[in-house]
């Protein structure tokens, strides 16, 4: 074959390879754009749901404290008890919906555990509230009753699923007032 025919064929082949590489690049960029869109729409919505649940939970706790401080007055008791129940329901509803939306994994397990422990905390607070009312709305009695009844509801960390991923490092020394953890910390690897 003559050089006059080989040169255009080689140039045409090079153009086809370049066009294929360009098409591949465009498809990869499109896939990355879809991944980013998912991050913005789904993951951001889940993060906002967690924030909403956190705000509702903090408001619930604050209203529980307000019941203890101002609950002797029946009007204040009703006001703060209504708010406590409203925020309790909001936190529970938000996290239940979030748990259903999350894919199986650590985040979903933590939200599901929060739901269970949050319900237990509500039951424990109601029991403590009964003691508070029985004492004639004595703040000290209410504080002791709620402190003891909700202290065991703290969310413990998830254990490592894979023992090989446990860190060989020792945990840091406990800070003042905290008991040291009996579990070895998980490594990030």
SSE order and pairing:
Layout (H helix, E strand, L loop, with lengths): L2 H68 L3 H28 L4 H29 L4 H13 L38
Helix pairs in contact: 1-2, 2-3, 3-4
Largest sheet: none
Q: Give the C-alpha Rg.
A: 29 Å
Span from first to last CA?
A: 59 Å
**Tally of helical segments:** 4
Structural class based on helices, strands and sheet pairing: mainly alpha
Mean pLDDT figure: 83
Subunit organisation of the chains: single chain
Q: SSE order, as H and E?
A: HHHH
Write a short abstract of this structure.
This protein has 189 residues and is an all-alpha fold. It has helices spanning 3-70, 74-101, 106-134, 139-151.
Detailed description of the structure:
With 189 residues, the chain is mainly alpha-helical. Helix 1 (3-70) packs antiparallel against helix 2 (74-101), helix 2 (74-101) packs antiparallel against helix 3 (106-134) and helix 3 packs antiparallel against helix 4 (139-151). It is rod-shaped and about 110 Å long. It has a domain at 46-153. 73% of the residues lie in helices and 0% in strands. It has helices spanning 3-70, 74-101, 106-134, 139-151.
Descriptive key words:
mainly alpha, rod-shaped, 4 helices
